[in-house]
Amino acid sequence: MPRTARDVVFVDGVRTPFGKAGPKGIYAETRADDLVIKAIRELLRRNPSLDPARVDEVAIAATTQIGDQGLTLGRSAALLAGLPKTVPGYSIDRMCAGAMTAATSVAGGIAFGAYDIAIAGGVEHMGRHPMGEGVDPNPRFMSEKIVDESALFMGMTAENLHDRFPHLTKERCDAYAVRSQEKAAKAYANGVIQPDLVPVAVRRTDEAGGETGWGLATVDEPMRPGTTMEMLAGLKTPFRPHGRITAGNAAGLNDGATASLIAAEDVARELGLPVKMRMVSYAFVGVEPEVMGIGPVPATEKALRQAGLTIADIGAFEINEAFAIQVLSMLDHFGIADDDERVNPYGGAIAYGHPLASSGVRLMTQLARRFEERPDVRYGLTSMCIGMGMGGTVIWENPNFTEGGK
Amino acid sequence: MSDTTALLKRAHELFPDEVVTSAHVRHLDLPLGAGTFALITLDNGFDHTKPTTFGPGSLAKLSEALDQVEREAAAGDIAAVGVTGKPFIFAVGADLKGVEVLKEHSDALAIGKGGHDVFKRIAALPVPTFAFYNGAAMGGGVEIGLHCDYRTVSTGVPAFSLPECFLGLVPGWGGCTILPNLIGPAKAISVIIENSLSQNRQLKGKQVFDLGIADAVFAPADFLEQSLLWAATVLKGETVVERPEIDRGEAWDAAVAHGRAIADSKVHGAAPAPYRALDIIAAAKNGDLQAGFDAEDAALADLIMGGELRSGIYAFNLVQKRGKRPFGAPDKSLARPVTKVGVVGAGLMASQLALLFARQLKVPVVLTDIDQERVDKGVGYVHGEIDKLQAKGRLNQDGANRLKGLVTGSLDKAAAFGDADFVIEAVFEEMGVKQQVFADVEAVVSPTCILATNTSSLSVTEMASKLEHPERVVGFHFFNPVAVLPLLEIVRGESTDDASLATAFGVAKKLKKTGVLVKDAPAFVVNRILTRFMGEIQTVVDEGTPIDVVEKGVEPLGLPMSPIVLIELVGPAIALHVSETLHGAFPDRFAVSENLARVVKAGKRGFYTWASGQQEIDPEVAALLQVGDVVLTPEQVLDRALSAVAQEIALMLDEGVVAEAQDVDLCLITGAGWPFHLGGITPYLDRSGVSERVNGKPFLAPGIASVPA
Fold first, then answer.
1. CA within 20 to 30 Å of A291's CA: A321, A351, B650, B691, which one?
2. Quick check: is A338 in a domain?
3. Residues 6+ apart with CB under 8 A from B679
């Protein structure tokens, strides 16, 4: 039968404030599933013209799919969020790119005609589910030297990336991290971030964490405005003696959730839903697991190739800052300055945090804000590195684009 | 404040075992830039299975929290204050254990005043105050919210009530005074009087909103977030709460009068609490809150020192605790699984039992009888009842299909009962018939299959005596209407073994019945007491006291219905039959009334007729009665009846029919609907002096259902 691929758009995205993982973090006593449920409900509340029964799929990512992140989270979260029982859902895992993969997967289904509208998001409660919880790597990884031992420890892969690019020094990374904190603080001051946050009621019974009882999480907990080079210089390098990766130039261990509405453009317009970004192409590419941070480079090249674009066509970048070195290695590859204003204009994961499988949609939400602010920008991309040696990039078109800009 | 502190300190010393509820103060930034919010979380440190309550120590903690927010509000550090609960629970009111220990009127007064003093400080805060009813809220839990300026409620709240009148108190921490001023007296009375006197009926979250108690309602998934957002819109002026004008004219008096009619229909003037509550509500018409609070304090103190409340708490604990952990039942680990049930007989009682077993046990239930027509009728009745449940929305199609599939009929006992674990008979009340039925069933069932009898008056031991395995026979005596009355008298025959008894108690629990262990004695507990009671009444009538004087005599008890009406409900023929049985066992105490026999013989269904629209003595019945010329006063009637009951209960305890007086009361409450304010009956017999006079001693030690010595 004849089939026409449909344009896929990003309608809207929200997220919980991100928290610091651990017993004193804001979400220490909050369930992971509740985080993503609250994000889904906020998404639907913000888009009242969408009848929830029209949602054809709920794809929710989590890296550690056990406990409150298990039980086919997309389906169980849909039920718990009060979506009609007719709405299906599933869980998805591509580690850090979980939510990004949720978005691209449902986008593929929409383009194919299987769905009109889907919810894509992710959650990671790294406090309740520390990285590596319950993993059981096949001994063949080591015995056959399929990967180096360091490949399973993200911080070590980032140190490996420094080895590959000696000119991308710790100082450049720290400077990048300072700018990320500055840009994030400025974005907060300008009210760019808060509109897409859903406040979360948080309970605390342990006095060690602060005031007990119910509170409300309204802002990202990991942010460290006022961070200076001097402050970063003295931090420990936990992955190697005299290494380069510190808690200051990498994203932390975080808790948080995101949710987005992805739709066929014609359906979105028919229902009067906003069209914030149009998906142009996407690509996931594997790299050597020992240097997983380089993944965005080939993923971006492939996505550009598919879109028939070049890096020069991209006017806005949202790159996940798992590690500053990973961002810099990509910029370096494409000849973009460390402090290029097109890149992460509101700061990134070094400031906001990186709750693994949720982060992909945060990048999209921030790129959508950028598109709104900059109608002169036609194309942007969201990109991230992925554990086990991968990269993922999605290229988006700005529906607000007008020739000559604002 | 020092007064309150001292008051609470003394109260806390009286009640050292209190589970203290903390009042955690936590500050948060409201959405929309509406400022800093001080949110008080009430939390006793346990999970939702131990709900948060208020005792004096808890009030002291709340008082400390208010010290803090008062300072912050005065300093301009906070924009508003809120109160909410731990997950699933807001707060379920005063800790009853703290009430039970009170011995002095002054201490009782202090409990009321202590609560008021603390709660009033919420209303007096200089910033707007909010209650977020996130979960179950009862009594003082509801009332703390009433002292706030605004309230939100979760649609997930399963239980919201002012149950004080149910127990014998009034909502005395502001409920009687504030609620009618908030939502009007008619709605307030529906909550305070009607719901609490209707077996403590609970409101759901949505109803709390519909009644106007809460100003906004949100789904549980993000209830607190949405409540805080709503609070922010109120503070910013974006949301304006408008409440309907309260009619303080005749409508108020009419509502109170209607409330008195409800109270009369429920407790017949015999319990003081609802009338005290109505007095306070009536006076609240003028909107003077402080006068209302003072009246609440006085009412609480009087009621706490009164027998009705002590009886109410005693009765509540019997139903909630003893009713759930039957006294004397063998270890439940001995119970055998029941995966299929047989019912011998397919008459009305048998069919009702089949429906109950199928609904609650969800195992196959087979009815048998002597011919196909009866079997078909029995199964047809059950299927019809299932259709009715479905029509009422109590069952969906799948559930109805499942239940109908479970209930079948058969003429072939061997095929029907061969793999059954529990067979109950509900055939004609005659020993020979029942013995034959059990012999027939024993021939086809496994050696461990329980054989249960629903007999109301025959000896279980005798019924089992001719069996190969008499140890498997238990009495399983239900009360009509089976679907409504919780009591199940579980009778241990002389041969009954622990495993069979444990199995019977296990089945009772699954049937959601209150199982009470009873010795194999004539008519067991409820029927023996009721028959003695009604027999004495009948004797008084036969001797010549007019029926209306008899009615007046028993009125102060506030029974659900008069003994004369009860005869009609039970059926004069059955009442006569039971009295004959008991007369056979105890001829000197149980008479067989010739008048009753005449009524039965004439085929009359009772003493009254309602043909004129009013209750009147049926002239045809009146013509049948041959009475003497001894006319008693109402007081003498009551004394005769109660003396008989007191004597009978004492004899039953001596015989070991049940273990303790508590079991008698539990049976009367759950099997005969005798009211909480009587505590069943023995607390009332004790406090009215009847026990002492008849038996030379009370049934219960002081403090059990009375003010401690």
1. A351
2. yes
3. B310, B311, B312, B314, B315, B665, B705
Whose tokens are 């009369």? That residue is B264
**b/e sequence B242-267, b meaning 16+ C-beta within 10 Å:** eeeebebeeebeebbebbbebbeebb
The answer to whether residue A120 sits within a structural domain is yes
Contact B222 A212 (CB under 8 A): no
ipTM over 0.90: yes
Going through B284-435 in order, the beta strands assigned E by DSSP cover 341-344, 365-368, 407-410, 422-425
Q: Could you give the CA distance from residue B409 to residue B60 in angstroms, rounded to a whole number?
A: 63
Burial of A249 (0-12, 13-18, 19+ CB in 10 A): buried
Hey, which residues does B477 pair with through a beta bridge? Answer: B489
- What is the distance between the alpha carbons of residues B234 and A234, in angstroms, rounded to a whole number? 48
Tell me which chain B residue has its CA closest to the CA of residue A38.
B222
Check if the beta carbon of residue A121 is closer than 8 Å to that of residue A102: yes
Cα distance between residue A62 and residue B232, in whole Å:
33
Closest Cβ opposite residue B24 in set A38, A198, A213: A213
Q: How far apart are CA B127 and CA B133, in angstroms?
A: 19
Does B222 contact A at CB distance below 8 Å? Answer: yes
Q: Nearest Cβ partner of B221 from A80, A203, A212?
A: A80
> In terms of C-beta density within 10 A (0-12 exposed, 13-18 middle, 19 or more buried), how is residue B418 classed?
middle
Q: Is B477 helix (H, G, I), strand (E, B) or coil?
A: strand
Q: Is position A217 within any domain?
A: no
Cα angle at B4 between B2 and B10, to 5 degrees? 100
Read off the pLDDT band of A405 (50, 70, 90).
low
- Could you tell me which of B66, B54, B52, B81 has the C-alpha nearest to residue B150? B81
In angstroms, the CA B455 to CA B110 distance is 52
Contact call for A215 and B39, based on CB within 8 A: yes
Residue A55 belongs to domain spanning? 8-129+251-397
**Residue contacts between A and B (CB atoms, under 8 Å):** 65
**Per the CB < 8 Å rule, is A213 touching B30?**
no
Q: Which residue has the tokens 């008894």?
A: B501
pLDDT digits (tens, 9 = 90+) for B106-158: 889 888 999 999 999 999 999 999 999 999 999 999 999 999 999 999 999 99
Of A50-59, A139-148, B682-691, which range is least confident?
A139-148
CA atoms within 13 A on the CB side of B16: 1
Catalytic residue numbers of A read 96, 354, 385
> How close, in Å, is residue A38 to chain B by CA atoms?
6
Give the model's confidence band at A404: pLDDT under 50 very low, under 70 low, under 90 confident, else very high. Answer: low
Q: Which chain B residue lies closest to A37 (C-alpha atoms)?
A: B221
One-letter identity of residue B223: F
Q: Shortest CB distance from B29 goes to which of A81, A214, A218?
A: A218
Contact B228 A80 (CB under 8 A): no
A211/B27 Cβ within 8 A: yes
Domains and CATH numbers, chain B: 2-305 (3.90.226.10), 333-519 (3.40.50.720), 526-656 (1.10.1040.50)
Dist CA A397 CA A377 (whole Å):
9
- The more confidently predicted of residues B574 and A203 is A203
